[in-house]
Design brief:
Number of helices: 15
CATH architecture of the largest domain: 3-Layer(aba) Sandwich
Oligomer: single chain
Number of domains: 3
CATH topology of the largest domain: Alpha-D-Glucose-1,6-Bisphosphate, Chain A, domain 3
Largest sheet: 7 strands, mixed
Strand order of the largest sheet: 1-2-6-5-3-4-7
Shape: globular
CATH class of the largest domain: Alpha Beta
Strand content: 15-25%
CATH superfamily of the largest domain: Alpha-D-Glucose-1,6-Bisphosphate, subunit A, domain 3
Number of strands: 22
Distance between the termini: 41 Å
């Protein structure tokens, strides 16, 4: 394995100029090109075409141009976007054009000093682990040098996809949304979401204001992840403008975030519940429901009440996408703000599409967002959720700690008896009332994530604090917390 290059839950990510360098981008592009050529040879129905996009991070365009150069030299036809574009647009174009692959230079919601290399397969979804394992195997055998011919020019650039925009206009009832006599705030977090949502809703009664829509390679000094506390500016603007709600997209616009009319954060558990409720009650749709290991008990209970099959998968949207391709899936969601549904053309996340769909859902019930959440809680039960991210020196520290929990789980935490230990992805302590505490090492950053869901906010706060104390050694594994 070439040092510094390892694929995680969605692509290879690294610190710019440390791991993520032009040399390493050339190496990865070279082995990907060889794999794509092999894919074309095996599947004659695929088009010899690779779409290459990039986000707004430092040197994003230059890294994309370097990748395009390598692919072109290898004999692949390249369509390189002439400006930063949302990752879902690349996925859409790949599937629409039956391309052999797509590449996006993005680190999604990671800190500003990171960049990344996402691989999109012909169906538009992210490369599976089995596929990235092939790439890593090729990397382990490659020379540390890639010969780039001097003066070689890649294919000409292309404009952002009109097909993608046309799909959204056809699928979302934009005319109805434009007729809403409300104010909506959009927070693009300086990412590729830009003013897309506002542009879809212009020339109507609805007032849409975009904040942090300009380019800033440092994302205002925060990680472009659409959750708290990063969404405090959105919350403040919603309250200031007395808006119906606030909608947000992350650095590459494949994830969605939201706050209600009171400026309160609507986590993904609530967003997924709202969309599931809307698709069933208003759209009259059905199908399986996919949740990742850190997703909500609430969504599971909703699916069970509707008589839908529930699939639980490891964390990472590619596991959801895999089921969306193989099974009749209505909706799937991960805790990290990624949601996909059968309404979309691609089995992928799309922050822009889902933001508009959320607005459509809220409007269809004629309720404020907080009122809609209460309606769902009244019908299916109330659950509360939160997460803390502990920065650690290396990912291995988090991995080792999770293994210790698996080997010696506490029998109780804050007087809540542990009913079972689940280890699908990390170590989850499940209590007798179905509340839970989960420890998981991040697959993309040196972080230990601690998650909890319970029947009250106070319960969740105590659980997260206890989890942190356990990691920091303030309480031993042999001691009941």
């Amino acid at each position: 394995m070439v040092k510094g290059i390892k694929f995680g839950t969605d692509g290879w990510r690294g610190v710019i100029a440390e791991d993520f360098t032009f040399e390493n981008v050339e190496l990865v592009s070279n082995v990907c090109a060889d794999q794509f050529l092999e894919d074309l040879d095996k599947n004659k129905k695929l088009n010899n075409l690779v779409f290459i996009g990039y986000d707004r991070r430092f040197l994003g365009r230059e890294f994309a141009e370097r990748a395009a150069l390598i692919f072109s030299e290898k004999g692949l036809n390249v369509s390189l976007y002439n400006k930063d574009v949302p990752t879902p647009m690349v996925s859409f174009d790949v599937k629409k054009q039956n391309a052999v692959s797509g590449i996006v230079i993005t680190a999604s919601h990671n800190p500003p000093n990171f960049s990344g290399f996402k691989i999109k397969l012909p169906d538009g979804c992210s490369a599976s682990k089995s596929y990235t394992d092939l790439i890593e195997k090729r990397l382990s055998n490659i020379s540390v040098e890639v010969d780039v011919k001097a003066g070689f020019k890649p294919a000409s650039t292309i404009d952002p996809s009109k097909d993608y925009s046309g799909f959204i206009k056809k699928t979302i009832d934009l005319d109805k949304l434009k007729n809403i006599n409300e104010t909506v705030i959009v927070d693009s977090m300086h990412g590729t979401g830009g003013d897309y949502i506002e542009s879809f809703l212009k020339n109507g009664k609805i007032k849409v204001k975009t904040i942090r829509g300009d380019i800033d390679v440092n994302f205002g000094g925060v990680n472009p992840e659409p959750m708290m506390p990063q969404l405090l500016p959105l919350s403040d603007e919603v309250l200031k403008s007395r808006a119906l709600m606030g909608l947000a997209t992350d650095g590459d616009a494949d994830r969605v975030g939201a706050v209600d009319e009171n400026g309160e954060y609507l986590n993904t558990h609530k967003l997924l519940a709202i969309l599931l409720y809307y698709l069933v009650e208003k759209k009259k749709l059905s199908g399986g429901v996919v949740v990742t290991f850190s997703q909500s008990v609430l969504v599971k209970k909703m699916a069970q009440k509707y008589g839908f099959k529930v699939y639980e998968v490891p964390i990472g949207f590619k596991h959801i996408a895999d089921l969306m391709i193989k099974e009749d899936i209505l909706i799937g969601g991960e805790e990290a703000n990624g949601i996909g549904s059968k309404l979309h053309f691609i089995p992928e996340r799309d922050g822009i599409f889902n933001a508009l769909l959320l607005l459509e859902a809220v409007n269809s019930f004629g309720l404020k967002p907080s009122q809609l959440v209460k309606k769902i809680h009244d019908e299916f039960g109330a659950f509360y959720y939160d997460r803390v991210d502990l920065h650690i020196l290396s990912s291995q520290i988090g991995i080792d700690f999770v293994e210790k929990i698996k080997l010696a789980p506490p029998k109780e935490v804050n007087n809540a008896k542990v009913k079972e230990l689940q280890a699908l992805d990390g170590a989850k302590l499940v209590f007798e009332d179905d509340s839970w505490l989960l420890f998981r090492a991040s697959g993309t950053e040196p972080l230990l994530r601690i998650y909890s869901e319970g029947r009250s906010k106070e319960f969740v706060e105590k659980m997260l604090k206890s989890g942190q104390n356990l990691f920091e050694g303030k309480v031993s594994l042999s001691t009941s917390l």
